[in-house]
UniProtKB/TrEMBL annotation:
<dbReference type="GO" id="GO:0004180">
    <property type="term" value="F:carboxypeptidase activity"/>
</dbReference>
<keyword id="KW-0720">Serine protease</keyword>
<feature type="active site" description="Charge relay system">
    <location>
        <position position="170"/>
    </location>
</feature>
<comment type="similarity">
    <text>Belongs to the peptidase S51 family.</text>
</comment>
<keyword id="KW-0645">Protease</keyword>
<feature type="active site" description="Charge relay system">
    <location>
        <position position="197"/>
    </location>
</feature>
<keyword id="KW-0121">Carboxypeptidase</keyword>
<dbReference type="InterPro" id="IPR029062">
    <property type="entry name" value="Class_I_gatase-like"/>
</dbReference>
<dbReference type="Pfam" id="PF03575">
    <property type="entry name" value="Peptidase_S51"/>
</dbReference>
<dbReference type="GO" id="GO:0008236">
    <property type="term" value="F:serine-type peptidase activity"/>
</dbReference>
<dbReference type="GO" id="GO:0008241">
    <property type="term" value="F:peptidyl-dipeptidase activity"/>
</dbReference>
<dbReference type="InterPro" id="IPR005320">
    <property type="entry name" value="Peptidase_S51"/>
</dbReference>
<keyword id="KW-0378">Hydrolase</keyword>
<feature type="active site" description="Charge relay system">
    <location>
        <position position="128"/>
    </location>
</feature>
<dbReference type="GO" id="GO:0006508">
    <property type="term" value="P:proteolysis"/>
</dbReference>
<comment type="function">
    <text>Exopeptidase that catalyzes the hydrolytic cleavage of multi-L-arginyl-poly-L-aspartic acid (cyanophycin; a water-insoluble reserve polymer) into aspartate-arginine dipeptides.</text>
</comment>
<protein>
    <recommendedName>
        <fullName>Cyanophycinase</fullName>
        <ecNumber>3.4.15.6</ecNumber>
    </recommendedName>
</protein>
Amino acid sequence: MNCGELLIIGGAEDKCLEGEVLNKFVELANRSDGGIGILPTASEIPEEVSTGYIKIFRDLGVDRVEVIKLDSRQDADDPEICKQLISFSAIFITGGNQSRLSERIGKSKFHHALSNAWHKGMVIAGTSAGASILGKHMIVAADTMLNDNKLKVEIGIGFGFLDDLIIDQHFSQRGRFDRLLSAIAGNKEIMGIGIDENTAILVKEGYFEVFGQHQVLVLDGRNSDYINITSSDNGSEELTLSGFNLHALTRGYRFDLLTRKLLMKKGIQP
């Protein structure tokens, strides 16, 4: 069986009956009858966050919606919780701090079970921090150096569902172009995907399609002809680069992750 779809959300998605992004997730989840498991581990207020998603998913017609409580590494290695995980048809990973997800779940039995379930067809969605964790690489932190306004980006290890990608969220709304560019400049094979709020990409079969209100930006330096990163004495980085490809996509457009090229909407000729 092919891997399940990944719905990767830029955060702040509409939680109402008309919300396109969560309606798409529920549509995918309802293809099987296992229901939705909510994973709020990234959040410091998991009960409050979970309550909002339980309400909207039930309002959208999902009968079974349950919270998967992982408060520690010990929980993430609990066979009963792993058994609960694989009973769902879809998992929704909420926002918060992606480092909490990595620290509590990364390389645990739960992580292994989640990966296996996805490879067997389970649908997985992640919003905000839950989006960032889905790649093999993720931005852990991006601090601005006070004396020269330059970024210092820290890269961590995500859940690894998508190779050679870094996903950033709340992209245009929080002005994250510079930090995503800095994150991929040191490795030409890694592609950066910045997803705006209330916007998502649905990844399946080697491509993604855009859903939602705003825009998705793809930064690709694989064919760049010049990259130079200079470190200053205070640890900040100065970038000189040329030949990066930039793609901006809106609702309905698709992008081939293998060839790294735009796929047009149905009915639109390139």
